[in-house]
Amino acid sequence: MSIETKVVADSVSPQGIRLSTLSLKYPRWIHAEFMTHRLFSRNASSSRAVPSKRLRALEREYPLWWGANIPGMQAGGKLSDEQGAKAKAIWDRMADACIEGVAELAELGLHKQWANRPLEWFTSISVLVSATSFDNFFGVRWHPDAQPEIQELARQMYAALQSSAPRHLEPGQWHLPYVSADEANSLGLDVARRCSAARCARVSYLNHDGTAPNVAKDLDTFTKLAGDPNGPPRPLHASPMEHQATPDRLCNPADPVSWQNPAQHGNFRGWRQYRKLLANEQIARFTPPA
User: Fold this and answer.
1) DSSP at 28
2) Spatial contact of 130 and 19, defined as CB atoms under 8 Å apart
3) How confident is the model at residue 57, as a pLDDT?
4) Helical spans, DSSP H, in the chain
5) What is the topology classification, in CATH, of domain 4-162?
6) What is the Cα–Cα distance from 274 to 184, expressed in whole angstroms?
7) What gap in Å lies between CA 154 and CA 163, rounded to an integer?
8) Which residues of the chain have pLDDT under 70?
9) How big is the chain by its Cα radius of gyration, in Å?
10) Domain limits of the chain?
11) Which of 123, 162, 235, 244 sits most deeply, having the most CB atoms within 10 A of its CB?
């Protein structure tokens, strides 16, 4: 089983509030638990977006250990070596059947948003997460009661953050995942924020392949996410714009919560999210289609 964590961007405000963005890979079966943490801004690889052939080629994931069933949500001791080997063989047989079925559905022409679903239970998911606080996550998930795989994810995330040195940013300076300081200076702030959002969105397609970024493609992707300002209005796909942020200012330095722009923090603390600066970043009143 492979769990991977990497700090993509790490910043700290004048008030000492740290904003960190991490790239993660973990078994998809713990993703629902990860999604319960509402202080996180996230983007993740999507079965609707990734071609079936690429998903079928993903490394197969297994439990950290084969635990015995007992009443309750936690496993008992480990299965015997013989039982563990049998469990893995059954797991593999089930996965093989799903891979074969997905290939047949893809050959039939069924769209990947349905055809890919049977692969999810034994493959990994790639996730980008940004937050100004991970403490509750670590407290809940790095705990003996948690699923073993999410315990290991929490341990690795904690270690990655402990070994990273955040960059000090002043108000007006921006936390921009996947855009270096030199590139941001070259592109200018508006283009740099758009490029960062587009690159954050690409985790949905598993396209962080190490190739050189293409600014024109980034801007085209951003337009698909945010819409054309000169075109007809439509819903924004705004979650990739939550990872970019700049420190907020305090109205009263003696009052640590007297922020100038608290409505722009979103799920962060003390940082203004790029998403909150965009017009129509959320639908305030829904009208059903005709």
Assistant:
1) G
2) yes
3) 84
4) 31-34, 52-56, 81-108, 112-115, 135-141, 148-162, 181-187, 189-201, 215-226
5) Gyrase A; domain 2 (3.30.1360)
6) 15
7) 14
8) 1, 204-211, 229-233
9) 21
10) 4-162, 169-277
11) 244
